[in-house]
Amino acid sequence: DSGVTQTPKHLITATGQRVTLRCSPRSGDLSVYWYQQSLDQGLQFLIHYYNGEERAKGNILERFSAQQFPDLHSELNLSSLELGDSALYFCASSGTSGGLPSYEQYFGPGTRLTVT
Amino acid sequence: AQSVTQPDIHITVSEGASLELRCNYSYGATPYLFWYVQSPGQGLQLLLKYFSGDTLVQGIKGFEAEFKRSQSSFNLRKPSVHWSDAAEYFCAVYNTGFQKLVFGTGTRLLVSP
What we know:
The complex is a heterodimer.
Chain A (H helix, E strand, L loop, with lengths): L4 E3 L2 E4 L5 E6 L6 E8 L3 E9 L2 E5 L6 E5 L5 E5 L8 E8 L1 E2 L2 E2 L4 E2 L3 E5 L1
Parallel strand pairs in A: 2-13
Antiparallel strand pairs in A: 1-3, 3-8, 4-5, 4-9, 5-6, 7-8, 9-12, 9-13, 10-11
Chain B lengths: L2 E3 L4 E5 L4 E3 L2 E3 L6 E6 L5 E7 L5 E3 L5 E5 L4 E6 L8 E9 L4 E4 L3 E6 L1
Parallel strand pairs in B: 2-12
Antiparallel strand pairs in B: 1-4, 3-9, 5-6, 5-10, 7-8, 8-9, 10-11, 10-12
């Protein structure tokens, strides 16, 4: 158990809908990362938040957004869902080292999103 | 841009035999390297990491990896594989500029009796 929790574990929804995935980082970790894992794209970085602020964006679609709240949990919002958005979505967290995000990331169990 | 190559998509090893999974990286600066394991339906578990110092690093579950700068490699090894090691293994490099992990495509390990 990494200490990172994600809810829900599974989500089935229809095209065009909107969903919210939730992540709670390990106790004390300030960084939250979101990754998407799909068969064709592999593991892709989406976005990084550090202590409530967006730090980096990766291959995140405009239909997707995220935020990190004062209690450090994070939510990933996916809207206007398409069949191709079906994937495993992972959240990871890391601590700090020398005032910067630590390099080690600890992953949650993931949310499997199925868009029908 | 950074990249990680895992040339073997699948590897089958007999239980009790040794294992080596290959990983090559492309990164201009000092690489921070990781191996993660993903069991079916599970998240990614950190096996080991290399930041600096001794080029042979020990991890959990009896795994080790050797960093070879001259070959841009960070191969994962285990002297004796157990059936429970069957999983997918991912090599990753940390991009300090974007503060993100860049993953390889993974190697699926099958363990035969």
